[in-house]
Write a structure and sequence with these properties.
By secondary structure, this protein is of the alpha+beta class. It has helices at 10-61, 67-73, 175-182; strands spanning 83-87, 111-116, 119-123, 126-132, 142-144, 147-149, 156-159, 162-165, 169-174. Strands 3-2-6-5 form a four-stranded mixed β-sheet, with no helix packed on it.
Amino acid sequence: MKENAAGYTLVGLAMVLLVAGVIVLTVLPPVVGNLKTRALYTEKSAILGLRDTVLGFAMENCRLPTQNELQACAPQYGLGERTGYVVATSPVLTDASALKSLKAEAGTDLALRVPVQDGFEANVNLAFFVYTTGLNRREDLESEGMEYRIRVPGERFELDGQVHVYDDLVRYVTLEALCDKTGCCQ
């Protein structure tokens, strides 16, 4: 009796699946890593571009832009969606020629608590800061009045009963640096 065997054997199919699985497992991690790196680069570019847009506006107008003015100047940065802008309210730096009547040593009401080795340090003379909501698209900044707290990127924290990973990017400009950059202050 002659057997007519057509098709693939079970062992042959298993070997093909095994080889395909090994190929996928060796190729996939670098590809995923590249996507995360590219997303982080995009976030960093957005935050630096937004900061530079604010500084450019301040150099031209001797004041900081309002939220609406910044949105009109730089819609590509997604202000309010994936990026944010917080400006000191005392003194009001968005008023016409606000920087011209200001001294670089003047205080502001805007503080950003940044992590340092032994706890947190408050920077109290901030003119403004910009931030991205990170890859999770959720604002992880904590605030109490005009005092904002940022965390170390990658730090785990609990919010609403769930554990999250901090991934917001923040860039700030002190009042002194703003005065130096613009040349508008007294």
